[in-house]
Design a protein that fits this description.
mainly alpha; globular
Length: 216
């Protein structure tokens, strides 16, 4: 992500004379968005870990104390690394798309481009036995994660919560796991769990919005 990030900074700051901070979403985030970005990946990862443990496999850790190290890595190295990527996608691209598109359209467009951007990783580095299942599940999972990242960036009014969420998901959910079976089966399980969780959140949000409208 260094190359596109450098190109964007050079184009906007030098050629267009635009304020890079505003187009990249580098503002102070809301507290709720930060709390969600930290806790959601941890709970999701632990849920998946427990699910695999019933099948005699391990995902996140062998001993519970290893969670502390994962948490520290997620909040530091992983989040800082993700920030370099997020200022391009949920920062710059989000900024320009929101000028002419709704939040849902922005989320869908960004998710489609972002997931396709990761296609070479699925093809050349994942090592799936069943390519169709593995790549489809991986791309679907990234699409859903991108939708979440976009909404967190919007609600948090900053790219920083999206970067933290991205970094924490890399550590707690998108990692290869310790003893989690075939790569494509693991990818499919992750996709299905994430889809269920997103569906539950969407239903909860919809009910809450309807309740607020009725009360008002």
């Amino acid at each position: 992500m260094i190359v596109p990030l450098t190109v964007i900074i050079a184009y906007q700051a030098v050629y267009c004379k635009l304020q890079v901070r505003s187009t990249m979403g580098l503002f102070r985030p809301t507290l709720k968005s930060m709390v969600f970005s930290i806790l959601f990946p941890v709970l999701l990862g632990i849920t998946f870990h427990v699910y695999l443990s019933f099948q005699g496999m391990r995902f996140l850790f062998e001993q519970e104390k290893e969670l502390v190290l994962l948490f520290v890595v997620g909040l530091t190295v992983a989040s800082l690394s993700a920030l370099l990527e997020e200022v391009v996608w949920r920062g710059n691209l989000h900024h320009h798309l929101r000028k002419n598109h709704s939040l849902f359209q922005t989320a869908a467009i960004t998710a489609a481009v972002w997931s396709l951007w990761h296609l070479p990783i699925a093809v050349f580095y994942k090592g799936y036995g069943d390519w169709f299942m593995g790549i489809t599940a991986y791309m679907g999972l990234l699409f859903l994660i991108s939708i979440t990242l976009t909404y967190v960036r919007e609600v948090g009014r900053s790219v920083i919560p999206a970067a933290v969420l991205h970094g924490m998901l890399n550590v707690f959910y998108l990692s290869g796991g310790l003893q989690s079976g075939s790569a494509e089966q693991e990818e499919l399980s992750k996709f299905l769990l994430y889809a269920v969780v997103m569906g539950m959140m969407a239903i909860t949000y919809g009910k809450r919005s309807n309740h607020i409208q009725i009360m008002s």
